[in-house]
Each structure stands twice: as C-alpha cells, then as structure tokens.
Write a structure and sequence with these properties.
By secondary structure, this protein is mostly loops. The chain is 5% helix and 2% strand. The protein has one domain: E3 ubiquitin-protein ligase SopA (Pectate Lyase C-like), CATH 2.160.20.80. The protein contains 2 helices and 2 strands; from the N terminus they run ααββ. It is elongated.
Length: 247
C-alpha cells in the first residue's frame, strides 16, 4: 500500500505514472486536480474535500471510498467503481459517469448539474436532495434509487430502468416519462409530492394527480437550475497543495 509520505512528494510532472495501489490511503483536502488516476485502486480511501477537478479516474476502483464534499467538477469517472462510496455534498457538475458502478452509493445533497450518467448503475443508491439539472440518465439503472427532493429539471431519462425508484418531492420540470409504460409508473414508482409543469411528459393515460404529483403554475416555475447553482471548482478557493498532506 502506498503511504501518505510518498504521495506528498508527488507533483504534476508525474501525471500518468501515479502509483496504482492507493487502497485505504488518507488524502483529506488534497489538491489532485488534472491528474490521471485511471485504473488505480483507491478503494476505502479517505478523500473528504479532495480536489479532483478535471482529473481522469477511468475504471478506477473507488469502492467504499469517502468523497464527502469532494470537488469532482468535469472529472472523468467513466466505468469507475463507486459501489457503496460516500459522496454527500460532493460537486460532480459536468462530470462523466458513463457506465460507472454507483450501486449503493450515498450521494445525498450532491451537485450533478450536467453530469453524464449514461448506462450507469445507480441501483439502491441515495440521491436525495441532489441537483441533477441537465443530467443524462439515459439507459441508467435506477432500481430502488432514492431521488426524494432532487431537482431533475431538464434531465434526460429515456431508456432508464426506474423500478421502485422514489421521486417523492422531486422537481420533474421538463422531464420526459412518455416512453415508460403507464403501469410501471403507476405501480412501481413513487411520485408523491413531486412537482411538474406543462413541459413534463407522461405516457398516454397516466394521471399525475392520482399519482400524487403537484402541477406548478407558470409563475412558480423557476428557470432551470436557478434554485441550486453549482459551486465554483474548489481549486479556485485556495485548497492546500498536495505537499501539505500530513504523512
């Protein structure tokens, strides 16, 4: 296992040759922006508030890793393994999570504005109170996914599997559910208290009022993403450089 002392000596000149075995490493608040950590083993690591702005973590093992309040803006996490990872309040705006494994991940309060989650696995994950405006959920597994209070306005959800998904109190403005079977939405999806407007589409015969949805008046509809704007990359907020990480 790589220790913190050896990581503290790492600098940007070594991008692409980062040690692959970082299992259980502790790098809280470290600045790891623009690094290539593809296929590294960072399972069960402590990466709270770490800055990974525009870094590459393709097919990286992050199973069980704590990324609480981490900055993952424009980060490439395609095919990454984030099973049972902790990402509460993390900022993943415009990140690439294509085919990522996020089953059982805890992401409540996170920001995923514009994130690509195409064909990702979010089975039994917790995305409550997340900002998902403009996100791409096409072909994504949302089986048992908790999306209570999430803002999914203007997100793409076509082809997703939403069996036993919970959209209670979520914002569904400009979301298209018209390609789903009416019976699936009526029997296996919870919409209690979710809000929608005339731009939200449902399958023929689906009664949103009977399903517990609340229609917004035109005056109540906010511009997309206005309620929760993504924070600036934390690299602009004077995070400590990597050489300050304690051994």
């Amino acid at each position: 296992m790589t220790d913190s002392a050896s990581i503290a000596c790492y600098d940007e000149q070594h991008i692409g040759s980062f040690p692959l075995d970082l299992y259980t490493v502790q790098l809280q608040q470290a600045n790891l922006s623009h690094l290539d950590l593809s296929r590294a083993d960072i399972g069960e690591a402590q990466l709270q508030r770490v800055n990974l702005f525009q870094s590459r973590l393709c097919a990286t093992n992050l199973m069980g890793t704590d990324l609480t309040s981490a900055q993952l803006i424009e980060t490439d996490l395609s095919q990454a393994i984030l099973t049972a990872a902790y990402l509460p309040r993390a900022n993943l705006s415009w990140s690439n999570l294509t085919r990522a494994k996020l089953n059982g991940a805890r992401m409540y309060g996170a920001c995923l504005v514009g994130a690509t989650l195409y064909n990702a696995d979010l089975t039994n994950s917790d995305l409550s109170e997340t900002n998902l405006c403009h996100s791409d959920f096409r072909q994504t597994s949302l089986i048992g996914t908790k999306l209570t209070g999430a803002d999914l306005s203007n997100s793409s959800i076509e082809g997703a599997i939403i069996f036993k998904a919970n959209f209670s109190n979520a914002c569904l403005v400009s979301v298209d559910f018209s390609t789903f079977q009416r019976g699936t939405l009526e029997r296996f999806v919870s919409f209690t208290g979710a809000t929608y407007d005339d731009t939200t589409r449902f399958p023929s015969g689906f009664d949103p009022d009977a399903a517990g949805l609340v229609k917004l008046r035109t005056s109540q509809t906010l511009p997309i993403g206005e309620a929760q704007s993504p924070a600036l990359p934390e690299q602009q907020q004077d995070l400590p450089p990597i050489d300050t990480v304690a051994a």
